[in-house]
Specification:
The protein is α+β, with helices and mostly antiparallel strands. It contains 9 helices and 4 strands; from the N terminus they run βαβααβαααβααα.
């Protein structure tokens, strides 16, 4: 009997994380927790939103009783916005954050970030996108220069590997055999970084 294996897929999901104004002093500590949880921080920006910008960012919450307090709170000081990447980034980040109400989080999810850093339902420390579609929308809002391209899967992924990845890897392995370095893994890693044909052409400046 022939067993059909699922086609390999290349998929790295992204989500938006925000460190809110009242815990901005915990930035380094929180970033360390993010990295140790398997995320990559691929973009980062320090900024302060105006009340109008906050109203636009949280437009889906417009009309709710807490909306004026939310926009006032989020515009009260600087924030740190980050684009996080990993497999299933949206769901993993939501799990790491815990319930939106920090009081409830301390009871039901005492080790979650909102339990550790938040105060109550409004001042809950951190923001996370609720879905993949909202993540794309929020990333474009905070990082308007971001390029969110569709990630190839199936045959498109194989074509991409054959066209862009395999030739570079083959050249690197050939050079490795000729060089015969003491530490081949480190040498090859450095070579691939140096000869990466897809080096980004744009440099994003982190706003202070």
């Amino acid at each position: 009997m022939e067993v059909l294996m699922p086609e390999p897929q290349i998929y790295v999901e992204r989500t938006l994380a925000i460190i809110k104004p009242d815990i901005i002093d915990k930035e380094e500590e929180i970033e360390d927790l993010i990295l140790r949880s398997g995320f990559h921080i691929i973009q980062k920006r320090n900024l302060q939103l105006s009340p109008e910008q906050c109203s636009n960012f949280y437009a889906e919450q417009f009309g709710k009783m807490f909306f004026p307090n939310l926009t006032a709170y989020m515009s009260s000081g600087p924030i740190v916005a980050m684009v996080l990447a990993r497999n299933c980034a949206v769901s993993y980040w939501k799990e790491l954050l815990g319930p939106s109400n920090s009081v409830r989080a301390r009871i039901t999810h005492p080790h979650s970030l909102r339990a550790l850093y938040g105060t109550d339902e409004l001042r809950n420390g951190l923001h996370g996108s609720l879905s993949i579609s909202s993540a794309e929308k929020e990333i474009r809002f905070i990082f308007p220069e971001a390029i969110l391209e569709p990630v190839p899967t199936g045959q498109r992924a194989r074509d991409y590997l054959n066209l862009y990845v395999k030739p570079t890897l083959l050249a690197g392995l050939t050079a490795l055999c000729k060089e015969k370095p003491a530490d081949p893994m480190i040498w090859l890693a450095d070579w691939l970084i140096e000869h990466n044909p897809n080096k980004p052409k744009l440099q994003y400046r982190i706003s202070q």
